[in-house]
Amino acid sequence: MKTQVAIIGAGPSGLLLSQLLNRAGISTIVLERQSREYVLSRIRAGVLEWGSVELLRKAGVGARMDAEGHPHDGFHLAYNNQEFRVDVHKHTGKRMMVYGQTEVTRDLYEAQDEIGATIIHGVENVKLHDLQSTPRVTYELDGKTQEVQCDFIAGCDGFHGVSRPSIPDDIRTEYEKVYPFGWLGVLSDTPPCADELIYANHRRGFALASMRSATRSRYYIQVPLTDKVENWSDDAFWDELKRRLPAEHAKTLITGPSIEKSIAPLRSFVCEPMQHGKLFLCGDAAHIVPPTGAKGLNLAMSDVYYLSNGLIAHYDDGNSNLLSAYSETALDRIWKAIRFSWSMTTLLHRFPDQTDFDQHVQESELLYTAQSKAAQTSIAENYVGLPYSR
Ligand code: FAD
Ligand code: DHB
């Protein structure tokens, strides 16, 4: 098989890249290890930056998001049973959209079906070859080895994919910080306890109240890495969440059976460079942020913005400047989001060795933020998403 761009992975980065390229008349083949049903069953992020919203519209997949998503103008920070609102719209003129990653992925699949794009599921043993000359991807499907010849490869295969390790060790530098806790998340068909998200710093640990719709809630609590999800009953989860949320919301919290419950570890990770020869990495294949601040999915989308522009300029005008600068351009924004997610994680979580002094400093920073327009503007502009550079 031949195509212009072979894309490894049908997560949000792979599907969005394929969609933008196909609409620009560039051919793609997407290779995905899992089944379509499996990809669509993953429950992950829920908050879109405005840049992501606009990119999805540009890709022709904005209709259901605009009809069913919930624009949010602000969010709440809570500590010591107090809470204040960061008015993102007032400080930045922009807003966020609450619309789940699962829905984004479904919309992208449907748009790809309409275009007649090629997405091959259930591929095994994917290998990348000849990255410096005429690249090829080999894989196994139903026991047979197949090959795709292409001009470029986009590695959109997540943190555990094959693309990043295909960049030779002596060229690749990896930066990593592993946090000593995880997030236990619960999805439930219950109305959210508040109209906007609440991020809570509590002496027992962080908690987040989020939502997917007027009838579906998403909640998280910080847990030790040693905790097992099967040892957390729904009742135990709700009791702990109520202890950590401000009393006003805990009182009105409506509980119900969990429809998904899982523990995710927290880490910051960056791979540099994000390109090698004809291979370009996008999204979780190149970087991971802790979820505090909702940057993971949004960073995947800004990578796709830069890479799609680079590829389109290359094919349309023969100008490869954007493509050559991809890694540098994308990393500039990535490191800013890495910094923001790290600072939100540091501000809001209880660390195992945390002293009362450290706790006072956290609470003092929250109080300062509550009282300072400058501090709120800084949080707001990072939360809503820094502008794309070109
Ligand atoms: P992925 O979504 O990981 O997609 C990669 C795709 O590649 C997958 O479909 C995978 O099956 C496929 N693949 C992997 N290896 C191969 C291979 N060898 N060959 C072919 N295909 C392969 N972000 C937030 O902002 N908020 C959250 O609450 C949040 N929660 C998360 C919870 C979990 C458990 C995880 C893992 C991530 C979470 N994230 C969250 C991060 C966010 O979901 C990711 O940043 C986003 O999914 C990145 O999209 P992606 O397409 O780059 O990677
Ligand atoms: C969600 C996840 C986040 O990491 C976050 O910061 C906000 C919301 C969510 O899943 O709804």
What is shown here, in short?
This protein has 390 residues and is an alpha+beta fold. 37% of the residues lie in helices and 28% in strands.
Q: What would your notes on this structure say?
A:
With 390 residues, this protein is an alpha+beta fold. It has two domains: 5-50 and 64-70 and 100-176 and 267-348, 3-Layer(bba) Sandwich (FAD/NAD(P)-binding domain), CATH 3.50.50; 179-266 and 349-384, D-Amino Acid Oxidase, subunit A, domain 2 (D-Amino Acid Oxidase, Chain A, domain 2, 2-Layer Sandwich), CATH 3.30.9. Helices cover 37% and strands 28% of the residues. It has helices spanning 12-23, 36-41, 50-58, 63-68, 88-92, 101-115, 234-244, 247-252, 296-317, 321-324, 326-348, 356-371, 373-383, and strands at 5-8, 28-32, 47-48, 70-72, 74-79, 82-87, 96-98, 118-121, 124-129, 136-141, 144-149, 152-155, 173-188, 198-201, 207-211, 217-223, 258-272, 275-276, 279-281, 287-288. Strands 6-5-14-15-16-13-17-20 form an eight-stranded mixed sheet. The model has no long low-confidence stretch (mean pLDDT 97). The structure holds flavin-adenine dinucleotide and 3,4-dihydroxybenzoic acid (DHB). The site of 3,4-dihydroxybenzoic acid has 10 residues, from loops. This is 4-hydroxybenzoate 3-monooxygenase.
